[in-house]
Amino acid sequence: xxxxxxxxxxxxxxxxxxxxxxxxxxxxxxxxxxxxxxxxxxxxxxxxxxxxxxxxxxxxxxxxxxxxxxxxxxxxxxxxxxxxxxxxxxxxxxxxxxxxxxxxxxxxxxxxxxxxxxxxxxxxxxxxxxxxxxxxxxxxxxxxxxxxxxxxxxxxxxxxxxxxxxxxxxxxxxxxxxxxxxxxxxxxxxxxxxxxxxxxxxxxxxxxxxxxxxxxxxxxxxxxxxxxxxxxxxxxxxxxxxxxxxxxxxxxxxxxxxxxxxxxxxxxxxxxxxxxxxxxxxxxxxxxxxxxxxxxxxxxxxxxxxxx
Amino acid sequence: xxxxxxxxxxxxxxxxxxxxxxxxxxxxxxxxxxxxxxxxxxxxxxxxxxxxxxxxxxxxxxxxxxxxxxxxxxxxxxxxxxxxxxxxxxxxxxxxxxxxxxxxxxxxxxxxxxxxxxxxxxxxxxxxxxxxxxxxxxxxxxxxxxxxxxxxxxxxxxxxxxxxxxxxxxxxxxxxxxxxxxxxxxxxxxxxxxxxxxxxxxxxxxxxxxxxxxxxxxxxxxxxxxxxxxxxxxxxxxxxxxxxxxxxxxxxxxxxxxxxxxxxxxxxxxxxxxxxxxxxxxxxxxxxxxxxxxxxxxxxxxxxxxxxxxxxxxxxxxxxxxxxxxxxxxxxxxxxxxxxxxxxxxxxxxxxxxxxxxxxxxxxxxxxxxxxxxxxxxxxxxxxxxxxxxxxxxxxxxxxxxxxxxxxx
Lengths: 308, 409
What we know:
The structure holds 2 protein chains of 2 kinds.
Chain A: H1 7-42, H2 49-70, H3 78-100, H4 109-131, E1 147-149, E2 155-157, H5 158-179, H6 182-192, H7 194-199, H8 204-226, H9 238-251, H10 256-276, H11 279-296
Antiparallel strand pairs in A: 1-2
Chain B: H1 2-22, H2 29-32, E1 43-50, H3 57-76, E2 84-91, H4 96-109, E3 115-117, H5 121-133, E4 138-140, E5 153-155, H6 160-175, E6 179-185, H7 188-204, E7 208-215, H8 223-232, E8 236-240, H9 244-255, E9 266-269, H10 274-280, H11 282-285, E10 289-292, H12 301-314, H13 322-341, H14 346-352, E11 357-358, E12 366-368, E13 374-375, E14 379-383, E15 389-394
Parallel strand pairs in B: 1-2, 1-3, 3-4, 4-5, 6-7, 6-8, 8-9, 9-10
Antiparallel strand pairs in B: 10-14, 11-12, 12-13, 14-15
Helix pairs in contact in B: 3-13, 4-5, 6-7, 9-10, 13-14
């Protein structure tokens, strides 16, 4: 299959393919992290995760319109403002949803699945009413488009690097928040034993609310970042939800490190196979492998992680 | 059931009587409608059946708008056979069984004279048995894979060969393309289209297909296929990727350092209309070519009037894609057929349909073939940064529709 290409061509293609795998890896981590926090730490299956992401994307769209209307000279920097706004808005909505809906359902984890699925439908129709059924085009600042040519053949996409950086920053942030901060300690205490955590004076309701809101906030940032690589429409969130769950479930729901490891495995497997096979077959094989491994190691499956 | 038939018969007789008693100058209800359709002396009811909710709403909204505009214009001109057109709109909700259910409701309960609707092939295939069973008339606007010819459907979009062959010929002749790479979403339309494309490339153009590849619907990561394209160095990448995947594909193509305006390779799509460019962003897709029958920028007078009327009704920022224009033709073709037949009866309309001509179509002159598809021209446009296509080529003659192309299956 490679006979017709020169050695230098092959080297550069493999380098680029490895890089494509890394980008896919960051995308997976970014979209799965918020879900992993909510699912792993709270046992809530958030089917509206994709819609929170798209809310972030729409916030980015609005911000870009605002900047091009009123602050054209600051346009190149609007993306950072947009990501911050996306985080704040989705965080707030997440807190609201937790207060209005999720907190009544903690003892019934399967019902959270239904309720959040309903929420996702409501949000989709809301976006459709407000922004129209058509996809919107998010204009990106010039410095985010295009690529950096390393050699003649190897070109590094700038937005890929950018997504990687965001993923790194957020992952490190989440790590410190969960394992080094007082808040994180409280969250982990609540996950391990709710009654005891309450007895020693931890406000468990508040912890739940912040955890859920944080998961949604990260989804919002992810959605904002994905305007660079994907589409923004009322139902675009659905495009991500399957992969997201795949990553989280495969990684083992309660472990954030597992999520990262699983994102790495799946992304590398998929991008390697996509290169040798056609896209659809690569997807089928990836899913087959995941199913096979889950049969042998079912620790990550939905049913095992239920709040007692 | 019995009482219903009886009462409807009574009603019909009563209507016919009253009409003949009034001695109105227009043709009476009984003469133009012998099958109990929802036709009165001053109105006729038709159905519009598209998804306005769910994932397909993004594509089907334009069609609804076009059909409503056409009907409004027909009404302003005095209607059909002196009758104003009333619309009953149903929502297919992006769910194929719902299309079948709503079709039945429109045909059986509402007794509509014609239905303008369906968008995806899946929705058409779901509704088709209902139209054939209850003898309804469906005007279907989307370009599609062909391999179908129902007496109950008029296909106002292109079947596969009309859209593909001329585009490939153009790439081969004008651009000297020798190596083609076929890329599509993984469902029936891209697969059938690429099958036809491959046969044409290999047998007629004597060129080579260096890659053929499908990605699941909704796929958002195309870096691997972009690398493959870079490695295989085709002259033309022939694309039938649809929906949200489009946005991801073109954005990533640009991010990977491929300048589409350099035409190496040349990107030729059959799935990106002005509607899709809205979501992709004109600056991300500048320089690709599309093979369609209609572009919003077509310079003829019909089209100028159409674009102006469309924007006046639906907002100045709106864009019009290939399918939207095809949907606009539906009501006009139906009107012409009804007037030729002098009757709303579905059988008579069907008989009258072949040979119907439309000189006022925005795309220019079209004619209904006896296989219920349209004769129409194929055009190639190049995408401009403002999100419009500039027409660079137009076929000399109308292309004959050929839903069952021999040697391509």
